[in-house]
Amino acid sequence: MSTAGRRKLRFQSFDEVMPDVERLLVGHTTVGEWSLGQICNHLATVLRRVVDLPASTVFDPSKFVGEEQKRGVMESGILPEGFPAPPEIVPNQTLDERQEAENLRQALAYYKASPGPVIPHRLFGPLTKQEWDRLQCIHLAHHLSFAIPKAD
User: Fold this and answer.
1) Does the pTM of the predicted model rise above 0.90?
2) Does any domain span residue 2?
3) What b/e sequence results for 57-77 when a residue is b if at least 16 CB atoms lie within 10 Å of its CB, and e otherwise?
4) Could you identify which of 38, 39, 92, 137 might form a hypothetical disulfide with 11, taking C-beta atoms 3.0 to 4.6 angstroms apart as the criterion?
């Protein structure tokens, strides 16, 4: 499944994210179900959550995908559409996009300043700090690809 009109977007580093968001704030349209404010809210929530959850957080290893699928995502930089998100990280209201963009900026700084997540990923299992960083960049690009900047 692929939503029509999405951008091909890849981030090699966290430093590429906010310039893209700033460009979107000038003018954009979205494809898919979320507004730019909701996208930024979700991304900020995930960045903080994976750092803040304690190592004792229990995940069900039977839900982990195989090493081959994990490697496919890490190598391709593409997160398939349709992975269900836990309800507590799905934004369900209209949100101010400028405020949520600022929240995303702060969450990126928070994540980057942290030693990194100590929990396994809910689908990919245990990850190194480098793998977490790569997956976060993939996740950021995945969601922001649904926002299309207006022509300059």
Assistant:
1) yes
2) no
3) eeeeeeebeeeeebeebbeeb
4) 137
